[in-house]
Amino acid sequence: GKGIAVFTSGGDSQGMNAAVRAVVRMGIYLGCKVYFIKEGYQGMVDGGKYIVEANWSSVSSIIHKGGTVIGSARCMDFKERAGRLKAAKNLVDRGITNLVVIGGDGSLTGADLFRQEWSSLLEELVATKKITVDQQQKYRTLQIAGLVGSIDNDFCGTDMTIGTDSALHRIIEACDAIVSTAYSHQRTFIMEVMGRHCGYLAIVAALTSEADYVFVPESPPPDDWQKRLCDKLEQERQMGQRLNIIIVAEGAIDRNGDAITAEMIKKVVVDNLQQDTRITVLGHVQRGGNPSAFDRILGCRMGAEAVMALVEADENTEPCIISLDGNQAVRVPLMDCVKRTKAVAQAMADKKFELAVELRGKS
Ligand code: F6P
Predict the structure, then answer these.
(1) Quick count: other Cβ atoms within 10 Å of Cβ 171?
(2) Beta-carbon contacts of residue 179 (< 8 Å; ≥ 6 apart)
(3) Where are the active-site residues found (predicted)?
(4) What distance in angstroms lies between residue 285's CA and the mean position of ligand 1's atoms?
(5) Residue 166 CA, ligand 1 centroid: distance in Å
(6) Predicted ipTM?
(7) 240-268 pLDDT, tens digit each
(8) Where are the alpha helices (DSSP H) in 261-331?
(9) Which of 31, 74, 243, 340 is the most exposed place for a label (fewest CB within 10 A)?
């Protein structure tokens, strides 16, 4: 059977454990040897105790846990060729030529570069007598399947990233809790939610919590947003509403690309309306806690499909992402997704916001 290793990289997200579990069990079921690489790329570079063979029971009782039990890291060593050389040696030593990468776009791009470099890394390992010519021949191709784990839902090529649904559950719970205290005191609350440069969490949170206003990066408000915001809040109060909720994405910006922060919004509300206003920054609570049923199933399906993709792959198979398309788990070329995700970032940087939304919508 093939040697497959699974690792989680970058920010953790709920549902990653379900994916790890599915990779291990589907791999073993199909006769592969499956390894954990602990602490992401750092573990691949360091080898030793960080790369361990998994068995059926090593993934028992993890499906319900948040985070990633095999650890994650943002690794600087892997960005250098010397680090990747060590990583390649560690994989060859164990006969691992298949990787399941669970992470965001940076982690997935890193995997693709590693794959492109693979034959030159093996060449160098032979030249320096770290591996044999036989090993070089036997392990000459590296196959990659990626799963997108992130609460941000910011990756083009999949409808939902693993963790987004659970993060929304956390956010909604917090919004509901805030509403009751806001109601009692007739207050206005500004809730800051995560998402980096993506407004998905903010927009869904706003729609599902009946917020009065939302600020997202992809759709910066008109220049007179302060007046529009105040008019809207005032109107709601005049209609008898006892509270106001404003959701602001952490990456919210105005039409010039300058940040719109919770503090700025608070000042506008207080100065113009004299409303009793508070800010709640949800922070990493959004990334913690147990995964939702949706994320557990998503992780399971994506993990199983990743192993099937690797088992069916031959030397000419391009690296893929396992994506959710409608309700189907499908394989899409890794580099297409990375390219499209980068195109969104570029459109945002160029302040071509409509284009960014259009490109994102195609995911
Ligand atoms: O990408 C996930 C995310 O939680 C973003 O929403 C947020 O901007 C970032 O990670 C926070 O990073 P860190 O955990 O390193 O503080």
Answers:
(1) 25
(2) 209, 243, 245
(3) 152 (proton acceptor)
(4) 11
(5) 15
(6) 0.98
(7) 999 999 999 999 999 999 999 999 999 99
(8) 262-273, 293-312
(9) 31
